[in-house]
Write a structure and sequence with these properties.
Elements lengths: L13 E4 L1 H4 L5 H4 L2 H7 L4 E4 L33 H13 L3 E6 L3 E3 L4 H4 L22 E3 L5 H18 L3 E4 L7 H11 L7 E4 L12 E3 L1 H11 L5 H14 L5 E4 L4 H7 L2 H5 L3 H10 L3 E5 L26 H13 L11 E5 L7 E8 L2 E8 L5 E6 L5 E5 L5 E4 L2 E6 L4 E6 L1
Parallel strand pairs: 1-2, 1-10, 2-3, 3-6, 6-7, 7-8, 8-9, 9-10
Antiparallel strand pairs: 4-5, 11-12, 12-13, 13-18, 14-17, 15-16, 15-18
Helix pairs in contact: 6-7, 8-9
Length: 424
């Protein structure tokens, strides 16, 4: 890690806002009333999906992809104005939360003004024509970071929002498709304007952490789906954890999730992918050494996909899982053992007599200890757990009952059941 992670992120969770689908109006103004609700739910960081104008040329669907950017320095008129965005950012800050913007640096829309004013900013094909990044992203034009002027223009655009709206960082789309040395250059320059920004990379290569604070754990998301389908089991979580320890020092954050805009739109809701394990995996994401993500609508148990290129609206109902996520956010915030990266506690696997279905571990920092039990299977499991870390007095996170464990205990967990015990 070449940069210092801001201390304000130490106990943070992150919440992704899909402005287009968040309300019937699909505007920034219509989102404002939800800000205090998110504050009350314990959200720490609000990630706004791209709020920029979407390209018209080669547009996909009716509304196009929010990741096909026509202008980096203004707001999509469908969402409102820069003044509306300023109100959103100010209200998020007033609520004690932080805000990061979704940034697309690898490509622009075909009708971005750079296409005509600075065609040298773009990659060319063998015939000398500006090209798309790949065969699927036909609505975008590939930027050339071998040109120093491209870098300067992109850094200028990144600075714009930090200076104008005092945002707190960026989530960078497909960050690994842009050279890491650009991100180092950009972060160095931008943090002269404001320190303690937070940088999230949509990428999984450990090298990206030369410039970024947090990367995606796609591997865990894929593994959870395979465990649900009985293609793999808890043994494979041990391999995952070993790889995490090897590849990512605890100074580097990992983001874990059961849903996000891509997963929801292209692969279905978490209930379609994980079935009865959806809530179990959400709890797991809060207990592992990582930062958990909540996607728009998860607090309302949204059980369908939101279209990527069309207008839709989240069915909020009465927010049936709002208290569930509020409780998890409080658990993480109140327990230093569960904090992020170097700020959090150690991870110790507790082996059981059923290591193919039961996943048990302890997180410990100083006098803070959390013991987490998960049945990651479709069948009930009965098992013994023996470890000195078990011994002590606890409060059951779910029931508030007091418990006392010795070094050897018998447990029974129903299918997909979980139990969290917090040391007293």
């Amino acid at each position: 890690m070449s940069f210092k992670i801001a201390e304000w992120t130490k106990a943070a969770n992150i919440y992704e806002v899909n402005i287009r689908q968040y309300t019937k109006e699909g505007t920034l103004k219509a989102f404002v009333p939800h800000i205090n609700r998110l504050k009350n739910m314990g959200v720490s960081i609000v990630w706004l999906m791209p709020i920029f104008p979407v390209g018209q040329v080669n547009r996909k669907g009716t509304l196009g992809s929010a990741y096909s950017i026509r202008d980096y320095k203004t707001v999509n008129p469908d969402y409102g104005t820069i003044d509306d965005l300023k109100i959103v950012v100010d209200q998020i800050h007033k609520a004690g939360m932080h805000v990061v913007l979704d940034w697309v640096a690898n490509h622009t829309a075909w009708d971005h003004e750079w296409i005509t004013s600075h065609p040298e900013y773009y990659e060319r094909d063998q015939w000398g024509n500006i090209k798309a990044p790949n065969a699927d992203w036909t609505d975008t034009a590939h930027l050339n970071y071998g040109n120093p002027a491209t870098r300067e223009a992109m850094i200028d655009a990144l600075k714009f929002w930090v200076e104008k709206l005092d945002i707190d960082g960026y989530r960078c789309d497909m960050a690994g498709l842009v050279p890491v040395d650009f991100w180092i250059q950009a972060r160095t320059e931008i943090e002269k304007k404001k320190k303690d920004l937070f940088w999230l990379a949509e990428w999984e290569d450990p090298q990206i952490h030369q410039a970024f604070d947090m990367s995606y754990s796609w591997n865990l998301q894929a593994l959870m789906a395979k465990i649900t389908r009985r293609e793999q089991n808890v043994y494979d979580l041990d391999h995952y954890r070993s790889a995490e320890i090897w590849n990512y020092p605890n100074s580097e954050y990992r983001m874990v999730f059961t849903s996000n805009h891509d997963e929801n739109s292209w692969h279905g809701s978490e209930y379609q992918r994980y079935g009865n394990g959806a809530k179990t995996y959400a709890v797991l994401s809060y207990c592992l050494p990582a930062m958990p993500l909540i996607y728009s609508g998860q607090e309302s148990a949204l059980n369908r996909s939101l279209p990527f290129f069309e207008k839709d609206c989240i069915e909020w109902g009465d927010y049936p899982l709002e208290d569930f996520y509020k409780k998890l956010n409080g658990l993480k915030k109140d327990n230093p053992a569960l904090w992020n990266g170097k700020f959090g506690g150690s991870f110790s696997k507790i082996f059981t007599s059923d290591n193919s279905r039961a996943y048990v571990f302890a997180r410990i920092k100083d006098k803070n200890k959390v013991i987490a039990f998960f049945n990651l299977s479709h069948e009930q499991t009965e098992f013994k757990a023996e470890n000195q870390l078990l011994e002590g007095k606890y409060t059951d996170f779910l029931t508030n009952e007091e418990k006392k464990f010795s070094t050897l205990e018998n447990f029974t967990l129903k299918p997909w059941e979980y139990k969290i015990f917090v040391a007293k």
